[in-house]
Amino acid sequence: MIKDIELLKEKGLKVTPQRIAIVDLLKSYGHLSISKMYELIKEKFPSISLATIYKNLNAMVDNGFVNEVKIIGQDSRYELAKASHSHVVCKECGVMEDIMLDDSDIKDEAKKLSKFDIQSSSITFYGICQKCATS
Amino acid sequence: MIKDIELLKEKGLKVTPQRIAIVDLLKSYGHLSISKMYELIKEKFPSISLATIYKNLNAMVDNGFVNEVKIIGQDSRYELAKASHSHVVCKECGVMEDIMLDDSDIKDEAKKLSKFDIQSSSITFYGICQKCATS
DNA sequence: CTGGGTGCAAAGTATTTGCATGAAC
DNA sequence: GTTCATGCAAATACTTTGCACCCAG
User: Based on the structure, what is the number of domains in chain A?
Assistant: First the structure.
């Protein structure tokens, strides 16, 4: 917790109760859409404004503190920035999981093929989770 | 051309001049955002409605005839569905290129790690294209 | 104190919908 | 002739902005 607060400060963002709540939610849920975040945060801050969430998430993204993950067929999710990783999304229930996989080979291949100076990647798999597969 | 028309028919979509124009544009440009598509298509159909583009792209996506590609920091692009491939996007000028890379290893790894029945993947790299790098 | 953050309401933008007309089959 | 597509306008959804007030530093 204290670490997050320090990080916010380092980025020049003031530490407000609303921001702490946003960070805490991202920590416990991993990834959240804006509407889900709004819904959850209102349990603690009934009077919070959607605009506050937009402004804060945008500020955190601009500071590299949070990442947006775009998904086909669903709202974007937001997550705390951390070691590069990939995602798996269930087409049925929408659940999203992080997976750590080594993308260095594929990234090298992409560099060769495209001649781009590649800086980052976004890798997302879509399928059916075990829970949905067995019900 | 005739092939596309047949494909539209097979999907149960009537072949209208507007739809042919959409498909032709996607063919020549590879990937287009909605607003770019609107801009280009108005050269041929000054009276076309944005709603027509939305409705048609949505219908084509629903039929698996067109795919949406989501990109961080830019509007989604649409492309004709074709063999699975990946994308490279320039953070500077926004240009997008297709690359064919073998993602079977990484996909197997994702299956193992996630226990999902993985059906498709979305792989996009971000960086700087050669043109922007040298200017 | 002082500057930035919050919440509200309003403005802006993006996307979808309903419907009368018109075109494809 | 029937069915579906088009284009317009209206409705809805999503996101940003302006501003008065408030709180963190």
Answer: 2
Q: How far apart are CA B87 and CA B125, in angstroms?
A: 6
For residue B90, give the nearest of A97, A116, A130 by CB distance.
A116
CA dihedral B90, B91, B94, B99 (to 10 degrees): 30
- Residue-wise pLDDT for A88-124, tens only, equals 999 999 999 999 999 999 999 999 999 999 999 999 9
Q: Which domain holds residue B121?
A: 86-133
Closest chain B C-alpha to A54 CA, distance in angstroms: 15
Judgement on whether residues B11 and B40 belong to the same structural domain of the protein: yes
Nearest nucleotide, C1' to the C-alpha of B19? D5
The protein side of the strand D contact, defined by CB less than 7 Å from any of its atoms, consists of A 9, 14-17, 34-35, 50-51, 54-55, 58, 75-76; B 13-14, 16, 18-19, 45, 47-49, 51-52, 55-56, 59
- For the stretch B100-129, pLDDT in tens is 999 999 999 999 999 999 999 999 999 999
B95 and B76 in a single domain? The answer is no
Rounded distance in angstroms from the CA atom of residue A22 to the C1' atom of nucleotide C9: 24
CA distances, A89 to each of A39, B14, B33, B105, B133 (Å): 21, 33, 24, 18, 34
Pair A66, A111 in one domain: no
